[in-house]
Amino acid sequence: MSMLHEDRLFIGGEWQAPKSGARLESIDPSTEEVWATVPDAGPADVDLAVAAAREALDGPWSRLTATRRGRLLTELAALLERDATSLGELESRDNGKPLRDTVGEVRRAAEWLRYYGGAADKLQGDVIPYRPGAHAFTRLEPVGVVGAVTPWNSPISLYAWKLGPALATGNVVVLKPAEQTSVSALAFARLVHDAGLPPGVVNIVPGRGAGAGHALVSHPGVDKISFTGSYETARQIMRSAADGLKRVSFECGGKSPHIVFADADLERAITVATHSAFRSTGQSCSAGSRLLVQREVYDEVLDALTARAERIRVGPALDPRTHIGPQTSAEQLDKTRRYIELGLDEGGRVVTGGGRPLGLDRGYFVQPTVFEGLANGSRLAQEEVFGPVLTVIPFDTEEEAVAIANDTTYGLVAGLWTRDVGRAHRVSERLQAGLVSVNTFRPVHWTLPYGGYKQSGLGRENGLAVLREYVEVKSVVVDYGDDAPEDPFAD
Ligand code: NAD
């Protein structure tokens, strides 16, 4: 297959070479070969993108009706749907996820855009009973120029998560995709152009975190940052955003507890627990990476889960038989391997997996791995691996399950399996996570607000809740009374 060369950034509705002429190489993680090059934007390019966004915000974009903005999002959704297979193929090569996952993600991204397209003209302010003789109301105005920074694990989904609400509320966006997976971002940019969005409303500037990323989040012309990625980067961004008090929202991953009580439908719980731990090769912020199992069913669950994990077919992303692909980068594979070593050093036992799958000599592959024998306080049970590594921990009582589940610095997702309705509500109430599910796991959906407690993030994405993150609320008071104003300086 010939190399793909993308050499231009999408700024102000036009294709522009980066000022420095620099490029990044994109590696196919199934083969370890460079398969594409992408432009590497720098601060000068970010300046241009922010200026183009501001011009659009002050110009044609602000003159469109909310209904029209919504239509443009719906149009973009249709183009994504049309090109789902070709975009999925690009993503599979860039990111290593199997084709059925990436094509499915593109289709779901279209649903996200449709949902916000429909919401665009339904967001409204309030009339407020302030006092007689005055008409008081609120206006919901766009925050302005949004800097969106995204990771490599679900690229196209996250473009839709950020663009949908930002554009529905009348903002403009400069998007900095992850350097490992920028190819599909530029294909996405073509669709933004073809959907008829006015020039500058969406600008796409691939580049490194320390280059284009830092330039964007510290740019004085950016009003809000919407970021998904690691906690460490979120902290740096918060510091950069302090000047000018930029609005920030962060989604930073988790170490999500998945609790199986003895009274649960174990067959279903085990199927879902295996899927939620290993889907996307564990490279998911919502992975159920800590499985807490009530002691009386612990052996039964562990045996069944192990058998299922061993049936997962690991393979190249474009092979239709593949269930899970490689890790996205060599760095991520090293990180996962280091965590497997660490788990062993901490006294854990590998029940299954732990190494490279047989017959896959090239590519960033690792087996689905199940650990037991680790305390919840161990580093493997506390830190986000972002690989296919599951830690299984027994518990005795409901009280203990909740205590272990909440004993983490994260708080993105949590789930429990039980047939006891009272327990379902009691435990859901006590779990510290932005998304709690009973008898299912991580129902991530455009209609459901999503985001973290504690160090998993700040603010919410998805649902109608996210729209508030992209508006300034302005109170307006119009006094129409005839009474003379009180004059405290009259005497
Ligand atoms: P990261 O936080 O380094 O990168 C995410 C995005 O931020 C990328 O676009 C990157 O270029 C950009 N970035 C990096 N430094 C920046 C800076 N100083 N200013 C502005 N932008 C910057 O995450 P990563 O390297 O892709 O992955 C590291 C770890 O983060 C993973 O192993 C995993 O634990 C976690 N992660 C979480 C998610 C999630 O969905 N929550 C996604 C990817 C990674």
TrEMBL record:
The keyword Membrane does not apply. Residues 15-476 form the Aldehyde dehydrogenase domain. PROSITE patterns: ALDEHYDE_DEHYDR_CYS (PS00070), ALDEHYDE_DEHYDR_GLU (PS00687). The keyword Oxidoreductase applies. Keywords: Oxidoreductase. It comes from the Bacteria. The active site is at 251. CDD domains: ALDH_DhaS. It holds the Pfam family Aldedh. Belongs to the aldehyde dehydrogenase family. This is Aldehyde dehydrogenase.
